[in-house]
Amino acid sequence: MLVFILNAGSSSLKYQLMNPIIKKVFASGICERIGIDGVLKHEYSEDKELKLDIAMPTHKEAIEAVLSTLTSGEGKVIDSINDIEAIGHRAVHGGEEFSASILVNDRVIETMKKLIPLAPLHNPANILGMEICQELMPGKPNVAVFDTAFHQTMPDYAYMYALPYDQYTKHGIRKYGFHGTSHFFVSNEARQMLDRKHNTRIIVCHLGNGSSVSAVHDGKCIDTSMGLTPVQGLMMGTRSGDVGAGALQYMMHQENMTIEEALDIMNKKSGILGISGKSSDLREVLEGMQNGDERCRLAVDMVAYNIKKYVGSYVAALDGVDALCFTGGIGENAALIREKVCAGLDAMGLVLDPVKNNKRSKVARDIATNGSASRIFVIPTNEEYVIANDTFKVVTESR
C-alpha cells in the first residue's frame, strides 16, 4: 500500500510517500512559508533533492504543489495521484475521545474541532490538511494518527492534576502527553533489542526542540512528562517546561502582563533560548559553552538535570528499569547530554560506556557498558513509519 503521510502545521507542511509493508520511502519533503511566499523542499530517489519557489497562499496550494511534484517533472516518483491508496495524518490532540488511530469522517473532524481549545496552534492545521485531502483526492481513505493516543493507557492517578475534580469533569483538564508516535516506536524497538515482550520497563527520552520523557511498562505508557499542553515537563528549545504557578503569577504582576503574553513567553522565548540568550538550537549553545559562555553552560546543565530528574522518577514509577532510550535530534546526536543524564545513575543499574557513547551512528545501538545491569539505547525514531503503518492497518480493517 502506498501511503501519503501529511503533517500540517500552521505555516508549514511536512510530507512523505511510503510503502509501510516494505518500509520503503519514495519521497519526502516540506513546504515552508505557507501564506507568505512558499518554498518546497523535495527529496526523492534516496539522494536527490529539489528546492522550488512556489506560491502557496494557503495549505491547499501547498498540498497541490506536493502532489504535482510527486507525479510530474524532475521529482516525479509515481505516475498519478491514483497510485496513492491512503492518506495518513499526524493529529496532535485527540483528548480522551481518541485512544487509537481512526478513519477520518465527519464525526471525527467535528470532534477534533471541539478539541481545538486544547491545541489551538495544531489541531486547526491538522483538520485543514484532512479536509483538503478529502477535496483533492475524493474517495481516498484518510486516517488520523494522534500524538496523544499512546498515552491514554496512563492510570488516573498519573494523569490527574490535584485541582478541584470538577475542573476535570467540566473541562477535561488533565495530563494528555504528546510525541506519542515516537514513544510508541522507540519503546517497541527497545523491547525487540531486549529480546523481551513481557515484563519490560522502558524509559524513552524524546529530545529535540520539543522534548518529553515517558515511562512504558510492557508496551503501555504509565506516565509522561508533557501535560494538558506541550509546555509542561522538560526544558525545551523555546518552552520553559515545569514552572510553578506562583512564579508565573509574580512575573505577570512585575511585568504587567496578560496571561496570553505570559504564555507566549513560556512557549516561544524561554527554555534553551531564554537561558542561553543565544539560540534555541542546542548545537549552537554547546559551541557557546565550549567557548566559555557561562549562560550557555548553565542552559546545558539545566537541560541535562531536568531530564535526569524525570528519568529517576520514572525508575521509581516503574519499580526499576530495563532500558533507558534516547531519541530525537538531541537524544540521538548530543553525546554530552547523554553523558550528563546518565552520570551517577550507576545505582539504578544504568552504566554508560563513554567510548560507545561518543561513537556516531545512524542505527540503533546499545551504549551501556557490558556489565551494566540495565541497557542504554540510542534509537533513531521513525514517526512517519508509525503513521503509515497505522494507516495501513486501519484501512485494511475497514475494508
UniProtKB/TrEMBL annotation:
<feature type="binding site">
    <location>
        <begin position="206"/>
        <end position="210"/>
    </location>
    <ligand>
        <name>ATP</name>
    </ligand>
</feature>
<dbReference type="InterPro" id="IPR000890">
    <property type="entry name" value="Aliphatic_acid_kin_short-chain"/>
</dbReference>
<comment type="similarity">
    <text>Belongs to the acetokinase family.</text>
</comment>
<feature type="binding site">
    <location>
        <begin position="329"/>
        <end position="333"/>
    </location>
    <ligand>
        <name>ATP</name>
    </ligand>
</feature>
<dbReference type="InterPro" id="IPR004372">
    <property type="entry name" value="Ac/propionate_kinase"/>
</dbReference>
<dbReference type="GO" id="GO:0006083">
    <property type="term" value="P:acetate metabolic process"/>
</dbReference>
<keyword id="KW-0547">Nucleotide-binding</keyword>
<keyword id="KW-0963">Cytoplasm</keyword>
<dbReference type="InterPro" id="IPR023865">
    <property type="entry name" value="Aliphatic_acid_kinase_CS"/>
</dbReference>
<keyword id="KW-0808">Transferase</keyword>
<keyword id="KW-0418">Kinase</keyword>
<feature type="binding site">
    <location>
        <begin position="281"/>
        <end position="283"/>
    </location>
    <ligand>
        <name>ATP</name>
    </ligand>
</feature>
<protein>
    <recommendedName>
        <fullName>Acetate kinase</fullName>
        <ecNumber>2.7.2.1</ecNumber>
    </recommendedName>
</protein>
<dbReference type="GO" id="GO:0005524">
    <property type="term" value="F:ATP binding"/>
</dbReference>
<dbReference type="Pfam" id="PF00871">
    <property type="entry name" value="Acetate_kinase"/>
</dbReference>
<dbReference type="GO" id="GO:0008776">
    <property type="term" value="F:acetate kinase activity"/>
</dbReference>
<feature type="site" description="Transition state stabilizer">
    <location>
        <position position="239"/>
    </location>
</feature>
<feature type="active site" description="Proton donor/acceptor">
    <location>
        <position position="147"/>
    </location>
</feature>
<feature type="binding site">
    <location>
        <position position="14"/>
    </location>
    <ligand>
        <name>ATP</name>
    </ligand>
</feature>
<keyword id="KW-0460">Magnesium</keyword>
<dbReference type="GO" id="GO:0005737">
    <property type="term" value="C:cytoplasm"/>
</dbReference>
<keyword id="KW-0479">Metal-binding</keyword>
<dbReference type="GO" id="GO:0006085">
    <property type="term" value="P:acetyl-CoA biosynthetic process"/>
</dbReference>
<comment type="function">
    <text>Catalyzes the formation of acetyl phosphate from acetate and ATP. Can also catalyze the reverse reaction.</text>
</comment>
<feature type="binding site">
    <location>
        <position position="7"/>
    </location>
    <ligand>
        <name>Mg(2+)</name>
    </ligand>
</feature>
<keyword id="KW-0067">ATP-binding</keyword>
<dbReference type="GO" id="GO:0000287">
    <property type="term" value="F:magnesium ion binding"/>
</dbReference>
<feature type="binding site">
    <location>
        <position position="90"/>
    </location>
    <ligand>
        <name>substrate</name>
    </ligand>
</feature>
<feature type="site" description="Transition state stabilizer">
    <location>
        <position position="179"/>
    </location>
</feature>
<comment type="subunit">
    <text>Homodimer.</text>
</comment>
<dbReference type="InterPro" id="IPR043129">
    <property type="entry name" value="ATPase_NBD"/>
</dbReference>
<comment type="pathway">
    <text>Metabolic intermediate biosynthesis; acetyl-CoA biosynthesis; acetyl-CoA from acetate: step 1/2.</text>
</comment>
<feature type="binding site">
    <location>
        <position position="383"/>
    </location>
    <ligand>
        <name>Mg(2+)</name>
    </ligand>
</feature>
